[in-house]
UniProtKB/TrEMBL annotation:
It holds the Pfam family DUF892. It comes from Paraburkholderia kururiensis. CDD domains: YciF (cd07909). InterPro entries: DUF892_YciF-like, Ferritin-like, Ferritin-like_SF, YciF. This is Ferritin-like domain-containing protein.
Amino acid sequence: MTRKTLQDLFVHSLSDIYSAEKQLTRALGKLSRAASNEELSKAFQTHLEETQGQIERIDKVVESSGIRLKRIKCVAMEGLVEEGQELIEEIEKGPVLDAGLVGAAQKVEHYEIAAYGTLCALGKQLGLNDAVKLLQETLEEEKATDLKLTQFAQKAGNVQAQKAA
Ligand SMILES: [Fe+2]
């Protein structure tokens, strides 16, 4: 067992989320195409653009803190993306699949919120103030996306309930 420093942990966590974001850019296009509700489809598209910006932000974090990312694969994101893909294969296009996609996307956002929250905390401890500022911006974006998805689910739920009444 090797003794790792807090800096090592920061680099590992940042490399992990970098991989996660890259995987997500490929997945969000699929989610957007699979969604039948236009608003939801657009929300995935918007988050795809944001995700590209988040990758650029990680590049800036790397520059500002003078670290080197490791080539690792985020297996958690791989699994989350796979679950979304399974839904697309198993459920026909429509409101039920949309509800499933919202849930799958929220699992992704919650993972990312946890990851960026941890990175902000580690960065603060390491005194990487510029990096923390950038990571905080992404954290806020992820939270906003999560909230948007919650609001969409509530609205869709209300429409379904009205239909059933
Ligand atoms: Fe992200």
